[in-house]
């Protein structure tokens, strides 16, 4: 466990009860603690590099928007940056009732339903989902399955919404043993009924995009702050 999250797990099993001697348990404990420290240090280093990279990227975006005289003029280059930096498949910029799109086509009906959900059915300024069909009721059929959204609502400014979209990603999950395999025997007492075979079984998860990472959400927060500083209403 690192920062309250499970980062590694080793499981062992045997047909008969086995008891490990104390010195073996102590060695295992030392190795686990050393691994926890290494993972924690790596995560801290990675986070610092991530923040530096985000700040550098946003500085470039600021220069682009200022040089082009606003988001709408900068949209072709800005949307390309968004898709690359967020590892998205498409982007949609909404200013009041006007919108610009790039990349993966969300479709008019799906955009209308997404916009209604984001603006009226939830209260977060930044929201994300890797399955719009599960998160948003009555979501129309669309190539888009995942969305990261942010908004800016300020006096005398157009109502700003930005949607980063992703298509479906068929995720394969490997399991040790098929859950529907017939039981081979039952002990008749404790309810233990092991399946002797732990053959690899692949489960395919459909209707989801790749999940949005912490980095993507942090980038969205910083991007929103930058766009507010640029006074988009002027």
From TrEMBL:
<feature type="domain" description="Phytochrome central region">
    <location>
        <begin position="79"/>
        <end position="231"/>
    </location>
</feature>
<dbReference type="Pfam" id="PF00360">
    <property type="entry name" value="PHY"/>
</dbReference>
<protein>
    <recommendedName>
        <fullName>Phytochrome central region domain-containing protein</fullName>
    </recommendedName>
</protein>
<dbReference type="InterPro" id="IPR013515">
    <property type="entry name" value="Phytochrome_cen-reg"/>
</dbReference>
<dbReference type="InterPro" id="IPR043150">
    <property type="entry name" value="Phytochrome_PHY_sf"/>
</dbReference>
<dbReference type="GO" id="GO:0009584">
    <property type="term" value="P:detection of visible light"/>
</dbReference>
<dbReference type="GO" id="GO:0006355">
    <property type="term" value="P:regulation of DNA-templated transcription"/>
</dbReference>
């Amino acid at each position: 466990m690192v920062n309250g999250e499970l980062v590694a797990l080793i499981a062992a099993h045997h047909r008969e009860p086995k008891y490990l001697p104390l010195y073996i348990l102590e060695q295992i404990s030392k190795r686990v603690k050393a691994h926890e420290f290494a993972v924690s240090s790596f995560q801290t280093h990675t986070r610092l590099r991530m923040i530096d990279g985000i700040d550098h990227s946003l500085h470039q975006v600021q220069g682009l928007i200022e040089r082009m005289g606003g988001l709408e003029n900068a949209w072709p280059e800005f949307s390309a940056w968004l898709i690359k930096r967020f590892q998205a498949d498409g982007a949609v910029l909404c200013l009041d009732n006007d919108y610009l799109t790039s990349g993966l086509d969300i479709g008019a009906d799906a955009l209308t339903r997404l916009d209604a959900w984001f603006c009226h059915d939830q209260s977060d300024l930044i929201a994300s989902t890797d399955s719009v069909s599960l998160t948003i009721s009555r979501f129309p059929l669309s190539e888009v399955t995942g969305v990261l959204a942010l908004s800016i609502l300020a006096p005398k400014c157009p109502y700003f919404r930005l949607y980063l979209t992703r298509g479906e990603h068929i995720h394969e999950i490997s399991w040790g043993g098929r859950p529907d395999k017939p039981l081979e025997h039952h002990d008749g007492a404790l309810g233990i009924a092991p399946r002797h075979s732990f053959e690899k079984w692949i489960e395919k998860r459909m209707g989801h995009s790749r999940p949005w990472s912490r980095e993507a959400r942090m980038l969205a927060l910083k991007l929103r702050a930058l766009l507010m500083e640029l006074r988009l209403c002027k």
